[in-house]
Amino acid sequence: MSKTARMTMIQAINSAHDVLLERDERVCAFGEDAGYFGGVFGCTQGLQEKYGLSRVFDTPINEAAIVAMAIGMAANGMRPIAEIQFADYIFPGFDQIVSELSRLRYRTAGAFSAPLVLRTPCGGGIYGGQTHSMSPEAFFTHIPGLVITMPSNPYDAKGMLIAASESDDPVLIFEPKRLYNGPFDGDPHKPALSWSSHEKGAVPTGHYTVPLGKADVVREGTALTVVAYGTMVHVALESAQLAGIDAEVIDLRTLIPYDIETIAKSVNKTGRCVVLHEAPRTSGFGAELMAQIQEECFYALEAPIKRVTGWDTPYPHAHEWEYFPGQTRVMRALKETLEA
Amino acid sequence: MSKTARMTMIQAINSAHDVLLERDERVCAFGEDAGYFGGVFGCTQGLQEKYGLSRVFDTPINEAAIVAMAIGMAANGMRPIAEIQFADYIFPGFDQIVSELSRLRYRTAGAFSAPLVLRTPCGGGIYGGQTHSMSPEAFFTHIPGLVITMPSNPYDAKGMLIAASESDDPVLIFEPKRLYNGPFDGDPHKPALSWSSHEKGAVPTGHYTVPLGKADVVREGTALTVVAYGTMVHVALESAQLAGIDAEVIDLRTLIPYDIETIAKSVNKTGRCVVLHEAPRTSGFGAELMAQIQEECFYALEAPIKRVTGWDTPYPHAHEWEYFPGQTRVMRALKETLEA
Amino acid sequence: MTPAPSRNRAGFTVPEPPARPGEKPDFSGLGLSQDIPVTRPDPDCPAKDTHMLANALIGVLNSEHQAQGQWDPALSPKTLRQGLHVMLKTRLYDDRMLKLQRQGKISFYMKALGEEAVACAAGMALRFEDMLFPSYRQQGLLFARDRDMVAMMTHCLSNAKDNLKGRQLPIHYTWKEGNFFSISGNLGTQFPQAVGWAMASAARGEDTVTASWVGDGTTAEGDFHGACTLASTYQAPVILNVVNNQWAISSFAGIAGGLNATFAAKGIGYGLATLRVDGNDFLAVYAVTRWAADRARAGHGPTLIEHVTYRADAHSTSDDPSRYRPKEEAKAWPLGDPVERLKSHLIALGEWDEARHEALTDALSKEVLASYKTAESYGTLRDGPLSPVPSMFEDVFVGQPWHLRRQRQDLGV
Amino acid sequence: MTPAPSRNRAGFTVPEPPARPGEKPDFSGLGLSQDIPVTRPDPDCPAKDTHMLANALIGVLNSEHQAQGQWDPALSPKTLRQGLHVMLKTRLYDDRMLKLQRQGKISFYMKALGEEAVACAAGMALRFEDMLFPSYRQQGLLFARDRDMVAMMTHCLSNAKDNLKGRQLPIHYTWKEGNFFSISGNLGTQFPQAVGWAMASAARGEDTVTASWVGDGTTAEGDFHGACTLASTYQAPVILNVVNNQWAISSFAGIAGGLNATFAAKGIGYGLATLRVDGNDFLAVYAVTRWAADRARAGHGPTLIEHVTYRADAHSTSDDPSRYRPKEEAKAWPLGDPVERLKSHLIALGEWDEARHEALTDALSKEVLASYKTAESYGTLRDGPLSPVPSMFEDVFVGQPWHLRRQRQDLGV
Ligand SMILES: Cc1ncc(C[n+]2csc(CCOP(=O)(O)OP(=O)(O)O)c2C)c(N)n1
Ligand SMILES: Cc1ncc(C[n+]2csc(CCOP(=O)(O)OP(=O)(O)O)c2C)c(N)n1
Ligand SMILES: [Mg+2]
Ligand SMILES: [Mg+2]
């Protein structure tokens, strides 16, 4: 394994691009403002200068065209990594994702495929209002044929992006933008935390992968199981700590295909489960997890599975912290599930 | 109540348009081929001739523009009913639905709203292949601000369309095209059934409404609860019959907001539940129902809630009946749930 | 002078076609004729030098069946006969497949009747290595590339030999070895994908060209605009074809905005090279395709071509055009029939005659029938054999994740 | 002559702006000048009679600060002074709001510096009943319609008096009483909606006009195409404005295809009336807007207008333009500054002077400051008071379905 360095999530993502562009000339990266400027969050900064205009470049503002162009390139032997500037803006490209990207291999019986990566920053916590805060992952988990991921730290972000680009399946990566510059445990009043002192902020500078489809048990425990991903992993850890509950916390990392084995093993052990996500509650990905867990672990369950989620409203600007499923709500759910 | 007549689902939908266009000059109807031709399934047939070009008309083939035009018209005092030719083709309009239609009232604090109806034929069973068979309702149930419905018979189809058009919320109606000309119980080898002998094929010719948000208990029973909607309602009824199981079958009708009261009452009574839909399994609307039912009825449940659904693949052409969640699979799930 | 502000009593306009069922077909408003010679700029010219061609109609064959003007591709009689062969084959194949659909042997079909030249001539003008992103009505490309007819039919039959394993509706061909992309049921999605494909080719320094096709109705989709924008910005080696066959399903080209500008003119706003061609003139389609291919191949960028043609039969086997347009419209089409026109040209050249034509028709009909017999022997949708059921769960992903494995097991296969 | 097929070694092109940080600004490639008089067709002319204007630049104020040519709207000194007032107000408001964002009082801001004429002149040229579907950079429309500044600020502060109940990011104004639609954060979505609104007005026989605005970058979105297509097909009474301020965020207009055609030229392919105007010339923007409004009002259909201007400051408070363009670009912009130009014109007319200008600036600055004091007294995002928490669950639906009621209760409010 190569040297490690302290990296933010942005630096880790940037480094993943760098490694990929360096190793494989089929890799290219593009998106709105992703070229010269290096992306509005800097995830591709410096790479156009290093690899040239035709490997890292700006696109017109048309998310459908970005996805379509990536599909065409990928089908023709390249390994594009496309950035959608905010997950809230992925919807103009939804048709290309649902109707084309996800099905190309299937409908051609394997003759054509589009192994590409779509990355996009998601989630709230930066006062972005309803159009810079969405966590739309659940929509994509209902589309057969896509690998859906959400890393929660720099180490995973880099390793999963490399794994995604090297995978022969199309992979979507939702990057919680609130975590870009430091972990966030759900308390907006605390001073900002930094990745520099976080275990997962130590990132190998070279090539490595984090396997897709594998969850990470980030805290072992026996009292109950918390299934979370993205920002909510940090909220879960802190809430369990504050509530003094011996929770087992699972960082799902890959949503499709999700690591049912790890989840079921844990829930069968603890008999209780809480599922967390920032996205709206109804038909969120938590619903799928709960449905499957109750099928899988019914006889082990001692309490109903609870979910703590964003509300079924657009993400409001002023009431961001009343919307965000923060520590108070998570702690309450943990306690209630424990006592149920 | 006015006279009734025997109607197919297509005729009932046509009649609903007719009633609405007649009563309310704010109502207009449009879509690809919906004007002169009256729609590829005939749901608006004869209405352009009757109400004129500016009330019932053809649109360019751009589903985003269709939705956007409807939003603009609805915000400006009209009551548009737009047809998306196949539910598979709603995705180019997804952004307008997620980002605009669903949020207009919210983001303007009530100053503007878009009370409109989007209708679209969904579901398989007509050898339509992957692009004329989708049941994409689950995607829409994750969007706060939309009423989502799926009628299963002519009576409901007409009454719900009138209710939808008169509602001040935006309403999406998914119409199972396999039911357009007759009920379908899941057995493709039987001769086609007809609405003419079906109780719900008797439809008032005039104005009436079927309330949104209210499920219909279409079969009472004590052994277990089946929650279904659309085509699967008929499959559920026939499967319960064939399996000789005293199932209570709930036709959900409205998916958002769903009638939790009716569902919970039933499951609390029976202690067992099977959820059905034709859409792919993972993150389908069944997941939401199961998640909520287990939260709501945990202590009454005697067996895991099962789901019988389409598979997590695109809808295949040749293997339509291996894909469709038919009687064999439904019966097996009913039995397993009863015996679990 | 500023018009006096007045109440806009007109409301909005909903365009209507010149004639409806029972009325007399009328194409006079389109101003089409086979006899206007048009200049041909060099393929390396600035795009703007082509913009006047967006409002012209490039033609080669005149009403006397002679090749005329600067666009004459000067094809050998052999090539011309080959063109006739390919178009006729397409037509006879279509006829047979329609019959099969009527007999319930296949679930669905779409013919290219009346617009065979668009695909056949383009298919012949392009190199085999050039990549094709067609819509569902360019089966002529396959015949131009000599795709095995039995393979096409096994696909349409969805049987065990279908190269798509029964997953796609008939006519949604894929032929990778023939550089023919997969056809989607969703309109227009392939247009911007084609630009991406072309960019990848260009990035590798290859000199292949990518071509894509959409219908007049489909130009309204956002993806049309996405494709034109990408092509313009990146100057990709791509040919974007609009097949204006006057009709979408039941809605005429005016519903897509076609009364207010030509479809070729849409290219002007992107600075694309723009050509508008008589799509029923095999020679002209060949010539413009070659022009655009030469331009792209040499690094001078994309071209948008409008092919003016007429969909002479139903939209698909689910359609009944007699409900929305006069039955005699196809006959009244001012640009004639592409097969007849090429045939007449060959006869005028002394390179063809009725007897040879009949013989060819006969031979092709037999080939089609024999192919069908073979294809059917591999199974039909109704009676099988089909691709094995477990194949239904394959190719969703490269591997088979646990949930699909379980679902397959759940089905007991 | 057909160019010899050669390997396309060029790959694809990624356009680059003429100058990057540290380089000398260079707008010579745009061929812009304030001094070309351009003819003015009648507003009821066929659309094609305007198409040459898609490649021209309509201007009124010449470099000598005189109004010239057929497009001179011949405005009264009072109206001109009103225009200056509105533009200056916009600018001073922007300055103040930027400061507040820097102080952490509001979360986000976007200025219109350098392109105030586009919105202010249009706002004045339209009738109050005309409906506006702006993007986020047309705050000038609000000032032109004399929107209460305190209300604008309470919105940006997201406080308890915010008419949007704190739900929207700052500057995403809604003002129904002012016939000003809600601003979306999603680019371009309002463009086709505006056409729908216009169609509803027309259907009722009203003579109001609907106008919408998008940026140069946003023209690439599918919704731009959808809007143009709808406007063309239904000939809706709508004005579709493209504000070409040369930059999206960090990407210049060339990334949207702007090197290959003007944005106005996109209208040609839809058969829209097309105008391209010096967007920094208040009189010219006023004139073209009035022309298009007259045209639409009288039932002659839609117009696409490109406003050529320059975004003189950052894209938003999240942006740092010094990282991607020369700092001095704004100063080098050949069409000058809209406030300065109108001011100089008024001075040249003898209707204004430096002292009055200073006094106006002073008065407006005071008004802005006083408004802010009032607005802030109603609360700030950081310290409140905000709209009551339960309001968060309102307006999702007309009523509050069970799931939202329960969620509200779950939050304990
Ligand atoms: C996104 C999408 N919307 C609608 C349809 C339904 N549809 C199939 S073909 C067609 C008409 C297309 O007309 P045109 O583009 O002119 O092509 P043509 O059939 O004339 O070749 C329509 C509306 C579809 N397949 N995809
Ligand atoms: C659908 C969508 N994609 C991307 C964005 C992010 N974004 C916000 S503004 C902007 C640039 C817009 O540029 P332009 O249209 O030229 O408008 P200007 O800011 O110059 O007025 C981008 C990419 C967005 N808001 N919506
Ligand atoms: Mg057509
Ligand atoms: Mg701009």
Q: Any overview of this molecule?
A:
The complex is a heterotetramer, with two copies of chain A (340 residues) and two copies of chain C (413 residues). With 340 residues, chain A is α/β, with parallel strands linked by helices. Chain A has two domains: 201 residues, Rossmann fold; 124 residues, Rossmann fold (3-Layer(aba) Sandwich). Chain A is built from twelve helices and 14 strands. In chain A, the strands form three sheets. In chain A, strands 3-2-4-5-7-6-12 form a seven-stranded mixed sheet, sandwiched between helices. Chain A has a five-stranded mixed sheet with strand order 9-11-10-13-14, with helices on both faces. In chain A, helix 8 crosses helix 12. The longest helix of chain A has 15 residues. Chain A starts with a strand and ends with a helix. In chain A, 74% of the residues are buried. The model of chain A has no long low-confidence stretch (mean pLDDT 97). In chain C, helix 6 links the parallel strand 2 and strand 3. Chain C has a five-stranded parallel sheet, with helices on both faces. By secondary structure, chain C is an alpha/beta fold. Chain C has a single domain, classed as Rossmann fold. Chains in contact: A-B, A-C, A-D, B-C, B-D, C-D. Chains A and B meet through helix 4, helix 6 and helix 10 of A and helix 4, helix 6 and helix 10 of B. The site of one magnesium ion has 7 residues of chain C, from loops. The site of one magnesium ion (MG) has 7 residues of chain C, from loops.
